[in-house]
């Protein structure tokens, strides 16, 4: 994946999950454990696939198991990978990704509070 196309799956996942969680929150419906698990898995998968595609496009040689490591521990492995491949600039990208991951929760919480106040 090259350029902005690489960000498309993550942005699409953030958009869909933000809308879904916001609808639940504004209707005062709690998110189920299954939904939470599915979103965690989806974010881990999308980030792992992004790292894999980026690693291939940059021809970065890493152990074969690194993809599995990113899948299970993306919150540690992804910043490590970005720092290794881009230096300090990579940590800024990691911060942007972290913000995208928490965006659905933040937006739905804010909308839920506003809905309760109205």
Mean pLDDT: 91
State the major sheet: none
Indicate the structural class: mainly alpha
The H/E string reads HHHHH
Radius of gyration: 16 Å
Shape: elongated
**Individual helix count:** 5
- State the share of residues found in helices, binned by percent: over 70%
Q: Strand content of the residues, in percent? A: under 5%
**Distance between the first and last residues' Cα:** 44 Å
Poorly predicted runs: none
Number of domains: 1
Number of strands: 0
Characterization of this structure:
The relative contact order is 0.16. This protein is elongated. It is an all-alpha fold and 118 residues long. Helices cover 81% and strands 0% of the residues. It has one domain. The longest helix is centred in the C-terminal third of the chain and has 30 residues.
């Amino acid at each position: 994946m090259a350029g902005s196309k690489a960000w498309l799956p993550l942005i699409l996942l953030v958009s869909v999950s933000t809308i879904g969680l916001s609808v639940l929150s504004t209707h005062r419906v709690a998110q189920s454990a299954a939904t939470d698990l599915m979103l965690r898995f989806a974010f881990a998968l999308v980030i792992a696939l992004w790292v894999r595609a980026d690693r291939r496009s940059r021809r970065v040689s890493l152990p074969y198991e690194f993809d599995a490591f990113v899948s299970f521990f993306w919150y540690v492995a992804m910043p490590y990978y970005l720092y290794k491949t881009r230096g300090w600039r990579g940590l800024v990208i990691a911060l942007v990704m972290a913000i995208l991951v928490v965006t659905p929760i933040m937006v739905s919480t804010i909308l839920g509070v506003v809905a309760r106040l109205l």
